[in-house]
Amino acid sequence: MRRRVALGAAVAAALAAGGISAFASGPSVTLAGNLTPNGRVIWNLDALLNDVNGARVDCYDGKRLEIFSVAKGGECPSPVARYQTYVFTFLDAFHSQFTLVARASPPQTGATSAPLRVNGRYVSCPGGLYHHGGPGWLVEGGGAGPNGYFWCN
Asked: CB neighbours of 7 closer than 8 A, spacing ≥ 6?
């Protein structure tokens, strides 16, 4: 019994001190305080891609508004007008606050934006942090390319 209590206290102390980063999500407190709202969106998208695809090459499909991956060392398919290598802003971002959601139909995001998919699933943003409250969806609009204009709708 004493061992369980001691182990529980040790885990709680490590979590409080930030010693176990696997449970953390989002950018560090220091970085988060220096990012714009759009910067936090891009950081979380980069972290999501690192979390899901690891060291694989990420490709952006401008026709389907989807990011998918190919094997490490591989290249995105042709034509370049449709497929582009995703350009990371934050190379070492991990533990995204975004989650992937499988849906039978696209979420409603408005007339001028479209939901982005990663590996066939829609990207859900945490409620209230990047949105006006409630669950939001990562969307693309404006035709700015592979990491130019994403936001949470």
From this structure: none
CB distance 127 to 38 below 8 Å: no
- Residue 32 identity (one-letter amino acid): A
Q: Is residue 108 part of a domain?
A: yes
Domain limits at 118? 25-152
- The model carries a pTM of 0.77
What SS3 state is found at 56? coil
Of 98, 97, 115, nearest to 106 by C-alpha is: 115
Give the tens place of pLDDT for each residue, 90-132: 999 999 999 999 999 998 877 778 899 999 999 998 864 555 5
- Is 137 a member of any domain? yes
H/E run at residue 135? none
